[in-house]
């Protein structure tokens, strides 16, 4: 039980981290394109 719960928690944390990284990458790309457009 404990092992299973820990594993699920780790998976959830990893998924959240991946989502954050993806959003960060998309924001960086959008900011980069905006800068190019401004120039």
User: What percent of residues adopt helix (DSSP H or I)?
Assistant: over 70%
Annotation field: number of helices = 1
End-to-end separation in angstroms reads 57 Å
Unreliable segments (pLDDT under 50, ≥5 consecutive)? none
What's the Cα radius of gyration? 17 Å
Quick one: how many beta strands? 0
The mean pLDDT is 86
Q: Strand count, sense and closure of the main sheet? A: none
Structural classification: mainly alpha
Strand content: under 5%
Question: What overall geometry do the principal axes of the alpha carbons give?
Answer: rod-shaped
Q: What's the helix and strand layout?
A:
Blueprint: H1 2-38
Keywords:
rod-shaped, 39 residues, 95% helix, mainly alpha
Description:
This protein has 39 residues and is mainly alpha-helical. Helices cover 95% and strands 0% of the residues. The protein contains 1 helix and no strands. It is rod-shaped and about 55 Å long. 0% of the residues are buried.
């Amino acid at each position: 039980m404990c092992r299973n719960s820990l594993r699920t928690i780790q998976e959830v944390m990893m998924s959240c981290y991946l989502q954050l990284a993806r959003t960060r990458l998309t924001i960086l790309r959008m900011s980069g394109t905006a800068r190019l457009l401004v120039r």
